[in-house]
Amino acid sequence: PAGMALVDNRLFVTDGAFLRVFDRESGRSRGEVHVLGAISLGDVAVGSRGEVYVTDWGVSAARSAAHGTVYRISRRGAVRAIAKSSVLGRPSGVVTIGKQPWVASVEPDMFYGVSRRGKLTHGAALPATGRLSGLTYADGRIFFSSPQTRTVYAGPPAGPFEPLVMWAKSPGDVGWDAGRQRVLVPLMDDDALELHIMAVEPS
């Protein structure tokens, strides 16, 4: 499994070319969606109407494509590729802000908004090269990690993105605990979870 997202009581998990669905409480399977043509699905984000967006890095141990792809999956399971081009490059992370999905891409290292028809909106330049782990939008900021730089970054959608947690060993998809104002950083190589409390600025 690579990415996860919750929609109501359903947990969506990417696994190869499949988006698998599980019951949030019991863990039982509630079906799957086969994304035909996908090579290695990565991050997952939920849209404002319950649709799901997934990224395909476009590279696996067995094969690779010239570019990655961003897919939209409707609540009924209909799959559509909404973005795929040399400009987009290889998308790794995806997050929804308002009604629009935003994608962190590599080659080039940029942040893009993707419209329903696949038009790209250029966002801020990313502070690190290489594949980025799952994006999270909360508290007006985007959080994401870079295993290459061992750093968690945060910043507004327009940038800039600043280091928030440094020297994190193999950081994975970042989470946000709104109730406790904490950033959750899984450490993939250590099978551990780090909790970082964010300082609250005085009013």
Topology, element by element:
Layout: E1 4-7, E2 10-15, E3 18-23, E4 29-34, E5 41-46, E6 52-56, E7 69-73, E8 79-83, E9 90-97, E10 100-106, E11 110-114, E12 120-125, E13 133-138, E14 141-146, E15 151-155, E16 162-166, E17 175-177, E18 182-187, E19 192-197
Antiparallel strand pairs: 1-2, 2-3, 3-4, 5-6, 6-7, 7-8, 9-10, 10-11, 11-12, 13-14, 14-15, 15-16, 17-18, 18-19
Quick structural gist:
The protein is mainly beta and 203 residues long. It has strands at 4-7, 10-15, 18-23, 29-34, 41-46, 52-56, 69-73, 79-83, 90-97, 100-106, 110-114, 120-125, 133-138, 141-146, 151-155, 162-166, 175-177, 182-187, 192-197.
Report on the structure:
With 203 residues, the protein is mainly beta. A hairpin with a 3-residue loop joins strand 10 and strand 11. The chain contains no helices and 19 strands. It has strands at residues 4-7, 10-15, 18-23, 29-34, 41-46, 52-56, 69-73, 79-83, 90-97, 100-106, 110-114, 120-125, 133-138, 141-146, 151-155, 162-166, 175-177, 182-187, 192-197. It has a four-stranded antiparallel sheet, with no helix packed on it. A four-stranded antiparallel sheet has the order 5-6-7-8, with no helix packed on it. Strands 9-10-11-12 form a four-stranded antiparallel sheet, with no helix packed on it. 0% of the residues lie in helices and 52% in strands.
